[in-house]
Amino acid sequence: MNDVESHVALERELPGEPPPSDLNARARRVLKHLDAVLPDLDALYRDLHEHPELSGQEAHTAAELARRLKAEGYEVTRGIGGHGVVGLLHNGDGPTVLLRGDMDALPIEEKTGLPYASHVTTPDGEPVMHACGHDIHTVCLAGTAALLARSRDAWRGTVMVVGQPAEETLQGARAMLEDGLYARFGTPDVVLGQHTAPLPVGAFMHREGVTMMGSDHLRVRLFGRGAHGALPHLSVDPVVMGASVVLRLQTIVSRELAPLEAAVVTVGIFQAGTRANVIPDEALLELTVRTEDDAVRARVLAAIERIVKAEAEASGAPRPPRVEVLESTPVNRNDPALLRRIRDAHAGWFGSGALVPGMLVTASEDFPRFAQGPEHAVRTAYWFMGITPLKAWNEAPGTTPEEKLSHVPGPHSSTYAPDREGSLRKGCESFTVAALACLHAGTASRDS
Ligand SMILES: [Zn+2]
Ligand SMILES: [Zn+2]
């Protein structure tokens, strides 16, 4: 710990007790119930995986989670920010620990061939699949909630279980907070979340500071002047204008940012025209931008605006272009002291060999919204849990994790097929151990 970090640590003590030496003993007392709850968790996982629900439509998932929380003695409220579920379990004096799991699936056609694969389609014929592992998140949340409820002598404090809808659209966390999550149920001392990763099952990855990039979704409208395709001199061609914009945008990361600054600028949509012989009036671009800090973000967004305007002007556009930021989500920044505590707890429980070095993930999450408390920032920690079956991992070409990762299915892939029992077991253990590391120790004697 350097001087700055120790100063910060002194300024605001972490809740719970100092890195607990008896944490493994407490974890054993809680996790001895795991074998008893696992059959129900496995059934729930198969059900959720086979019947995934798109963002904002998580009615069945929320009902199944809420039912289990109620049965374990939680005070349950549903319908927070859409299908959001909140379960509270007060168990004496101590910190409030929020455990967050997201519940939604993706519009992807499942091609895993698993016996419990999804065949769900929306009324519009859109396929739906749990391709991001949110079914595992929900089940591990339910499992951890049950384990903590069945071993109340092992800890003190309040557990706040949050089943979050609509993560994939980056709207659910904000919707829950705007619906009064903290005002109605209390501001937690810490917020914990975990996400599946294509690492081997049993491996965990933690990163201090920024663990996932912030994201901006931009829409750019370029205005030209349409004409007959055979009379291009009478037009201002928005297709050529758009093509120049797309190419020039590539120089932001390669030529404007310093080599070690990280950002992504991707043009995912480029639409213009309907006929080969018609030069259209307009072109539409949609971009995703990923950045790891606010200063880089501001520079990248300013560069996009500058390039789009300059290319439109260079083309002689009749009207200035329009650049809009449609949706943003902040960087996912782990509280350093909290993250260290969780990582140490996981190393103590799983063994340090289970931990892989933290890599910055360029994907984004709306989890960091939970850090925005009404009065002060709430400490958050977020880590990744491996779910790839060991056989698939061992057979993947390559020797380093980086090499193997490019050969196993990752999140948002139609063949993302987690090791079922291993993922549920390890995910419940990691969530439980992390929660116990933040709650106060219980009153009962060791190892009952
Ligand atoms: Zn996802
Ligand atoms: Zn996800």
UniProtKB/TrEMBL annotation:
GO BP annotations, alphabetical order: diaminopimelate biosynthetic process
Keyword field: Hydrolase, Manganese, Metal-binding
CC cofactor note: The Mn(2+) ion enhances activity.
NCBIfam families for the chain: amidohydrolases
Entry annotated with the keyword Ribonucleoprotein: no
Stretch list, region Disordered: 1-24, 395-421
Cofactor: Mn(2+)
Binding-site residues, Mn(2+): 132, 134, 168, 195
Name the record gives this protein: Amidohydrolase
Gene Ontology MF terms in the entry: metal ion binding; N-acetyldiaminopimelate deacetylase activity
Ranges of Basic and acidic residues composition bias in the record: 1-15
Limits of the Peptidase M20 dimerisation domain: 214-313
Source organism of this protein record: Corallococcus llansteffanensis
